[in-house]
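[Discussion] Sanity-checking designs against the backbone

I'm trying to build intuition for which residues belong where. Below is a structure token string of 152 positions. I'd appreciate it if someone posts a full sequence so I can compare it with mine line by line.
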């Protein structure tokens, strides 16, 4: 009987430690970026909602205009496509700049069947609770025909 109680106690401790050790999606800027990328590939609005600030803004180009959307608008659109997997695309990320409170990441998406790429500049900030949240996304649609001009 004592052995059975000891086994149950140890099992409970292991399960508790595993649950507590599980990282929240907003615990690090790297996990926020991974959630952002996964939410795009899998049209998973729940993952994006977990890492998106309440006042997040998406800015993108459409022809020669700049379009701004609230984060809630993006979540609603993603919700309509819930579970639709993005096919024939590659996604990668890199950190442009980082501090203890602010990170700017670049998430590139290229499509095999589309002549062009999408660049996302994602601004991630640490909030009052110490959680990392996406506050701004600058989405740029770039045609392969256009040339990027470098500043001299």
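Best answer:
Here's mine. Compare freely.
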């Amino acid at each position: 009987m004592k052995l059975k109680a000891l086994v149950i106690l140890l099992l409970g401790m292991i399960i508790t430690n595993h649950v507590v050790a599980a990282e929240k999606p907003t615990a690090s800027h790297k996990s926020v970026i991974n959630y952002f990328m996964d939410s795009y590939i899998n049209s998973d609005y729940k993952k994006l909602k977990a890492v998106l600030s309440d006042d997040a803004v998406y800015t993108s180009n459409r022809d020669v205009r700049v379009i701004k959307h609230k984060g809630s608008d993006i979540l609603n659109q993603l919700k309509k496509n819930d579970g639709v997997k993005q096919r024939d695309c590659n996604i990668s990320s890199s950190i442009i700049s980082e501090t203890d409170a602010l990170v700017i990441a670049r998430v590139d998406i290229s499509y095999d069947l589309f002549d062009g790429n999408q660049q996302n500049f994602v601004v991630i900030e640490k909030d009052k609770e110490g959680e990392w949240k996406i506050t701004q996304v600058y989405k740029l649609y770039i045609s392969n025909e256009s040339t990027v001009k470098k500043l001299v």
